[in-house]
Design a protein that fits this description.
The chain is α+β, with helices and mostly antiparallel strands. It has 3 domains: 82 residues, Immunoglobulins (Immunoglobulin-like, Sandwich), CATH 2.60.40; 95 residues, OmpA-like domain (60s Ribosomal Protein L30, Chain: A); 105 residues, 2-Layer Sandwich (60s Ribosomal Protein L30, Chain: A). Helix content is 31%, strand content 26%. The chain is built from 6 helices and 14 strands. The protein has a 4-stranded antiparallel β-sheet, with no helix packed on it. The longest helix is centred in the first third of the chain and has 30 residues. The N and C termini lie far apart (74 Å).
Length: 354
């Protein structure tokens, strides 16, 4: 039998238990609600810096549609609660579309501010709709090469113009595979234009996976040929539009640790990224052709990751950096000579957004 004192204590505990459970549930609820990162954004005319009314669309992991919102006053705020890769697409009448990507990997960065500068349209937003690819391929066909020759001619005749190269995929594969495939397609066009003498600083490459289909995919016909494409969008050069070009970091055969002479170039990329907080960067690792495909993919990935690890150790946000190993698939020089192979064992810095 319980004593009177024990009985009173038990009754008191029971009386406050509902309140405790309510407070505990509120704490858990607020923790979930505050997870991820809050994006505060303004949409501005690139010339006048005045607000632009338009529309924003947000996707998660390139496939999952999250939100569509009309922007009456040229600004929006969105809480990105889920961890993953976000694609933000902004459109407005009379302006070229603007896109951005954000990685949300943890809760360490509670908010971020972005100004999206919209460039007025001066002519067609894309050169051509004819650069298509076979399923699971990133190889240019004869028809695409003919079209690209006309783009080379245009860029040579208009040195004040640059272009954005957007790679896309259909939805027949996993999201991460489609993203990589779309990047490879963009790089195929990028490499072709480079081989024709177009300056690297005038070319931007983006891979959007299957996030922006030209034809709507559905369960019965996810493989739409028009979605396996590259679109090339011209824009007029400006100090903000030209992407910087950094020197490559070259590695000795079979090594993945950073060379001792790489510090100056690494400090340059750190300085640039600190001065341009909107900028993101792909760290692209490469290998020569000595060894198997799997070994070269692994060693090129490790080279890229060693650079990313160093940049993070210097205070850069890892969500702004992406390491990817290309193996020996994108040689910079021939592999027939030792000098050529030395140039191919490298890491490149590909700035994605400013």
């Amino acid at each position: 039998m319980l004593s009177p004192t024990t009985t009173k204590m038990k009754a008191k505990l029971l009386s406050v238990l509902p309140l405790f459970l309510f407070v505990f549930s509120e704490v858990l609820g607020s923790t979930h609600a505050d997870a991820g990162m809050v994006l505060h954004a303004r949409v501005l005319d690139a010339r006048t810096l005045q607000p632009v009314s338009g529309r924003v669309q947000i996707y998660l992991d390139s496939d999952v549609f999250m939100k569509r919102e009309d922007l009456e006053y040229g600004e929006f705020t969105e809480q990105l609660r889920e961890y993953g890769w976000y694609l933000i697409k902004i459109s407005a009448k009379g302006y070229n579309e603007t896109t951005d990507t954000l990685w949300v990997l943890n809760d360490k960065r509670p908010s971020i501010n972005r100004d999206y500068l919209m460039n007025p349209q001066t002519f067609s937003t894309a050169f051509s709709n004819n650069i298509y690819f076979d399923r699971n391929k990133a190889t240019l066909n004869d028809e695409s090469v003919e079209e690209l020759e006309s783009i080379v001619k245009f860029l040579n005749e208009n040195p004040d113009m640059s272009c954005e190269i957007e790679g896309h995929a259909d939805r027949t594969g996993p999201a991460d595979y489609n993203l990589a495939l779309s990047e490879d397609r963009a790089y195929a066009v990028f490499d072709f234009l480079l081989s024709k003498g177009i300056e690297r600083a005038r070319l931007r490459t983006f891979g959007y996976g299957s996030a922006l289909p030209k034809d709507d995919d559905d369960a019965s016909s996810g493989s739409k040929p028009k979605n396996r494409r590259v679109e090339i969008i011209p824009f007029k050069n400006s100090p903000e539009a030209i992407f910087p070009v950094f020197d490559n970091i070259c590695f000795d055969f079979g090594t993945t640790s950073l060379p001792k002479d790489s510090s100056p170039e690494l400090e340059s990329i750190i300085k640039f990224l600190n001065e341009n907080p909107r900028a993101t960067c792909e760290i692209a690792g490469h290998a020569d052709n000595i060894g198997s495909k799997d070994v070269n993919i692994a060693i090129s990935q490790q080279r890229a990751e060693s650079v990313v690890k160093y940049l993070i150790s210097k205070g850069l946000d890892g969500s702004r950096l992406k390491a990817r190993g290309y193996g020996s698939s994108r040689p910079m020089d021939g592999n027939a000579t030792a000098a050529g192979r030395a140039k191919n064992r490298r890491v490149e810095f590909n700035v994605r957004a400013i």
